[in-house]
Amino acid sequence: MPLVRFPAPAEPLWHEWDRKAQKSGLRHTVYAVNGDQYTGEWRDNLKHGKGTQLWKRTGAIYKGDWKFGKRDGYGSYSVPDPVTKEYKKVYTGWWKNDKKCGYGTTFYPGGEYYEGEWSGGQRSGWGRMYYGDGSIYEGQWLQDRPCGQGMLRLPNENRYEGGWKEGKKHGPGKFFYLDTGQLFEGVWAADIPKYGTMIDFGRDEAPTPTQYPIPKV
Prior knowledge:
Blueprint: H1 13-21, E1 27-31, E2 37-43, E3 46-54, E4 61-67, E5 70-80, E6 87-96, E7 99-107, E8 113-119, E9 122-130, E10 136-142, E11 145-153, E12 159-165, E13 168-177, E14 182-189, E15 192-200
Antiparallel strand pairs: 1-2, 2-3, 3-4, 4-5, 5-6, 6-7, 7-8, 8-9, 9-10, 10-11, 11-12, 12-13, 13-14, 14-15
């Protein structure tokens, strides 16, 4: 008796519908239940590639790279100004696992901004911070605070160069009083100078030198 071959059963239609529903590769715009909106590339139903996310509650917007549903790569995050409603950049730079990581620039209220390295969403590594009063810190950071070696330049050009710990002067350092033409070299602990030596430094060029020079030892 000849062997009868039956045709393979047709694939259920829901399989085909499911494949078509899986967002992958192409750009799609999707609205969440809470009103958030994403327009961009997908992979396995996750944001992956280039895309733009808009958060309805805050109005914040992110444009850049995504990896399996999280911000990862290069991108910018902006928020609307509460008065003008115009978008202002908050952060532009690199991301990893949905957090700032790598080199980037963050803009703070009052005109302050930081440019440098990040890790896990915090300033870590080398960076430069521009403060609202005109001071500038340039050096090493750890867990969002100056830590290691760095220089703080004040608005009057006086500056400190030396060690830092948890955001405070700590360890050997030098403080240049360029307005009076003096230099203090010593050791700090938690922002307080513990001991050291004060000498004249650039006294002839100082705008407001002390009345009497410091005698040489």
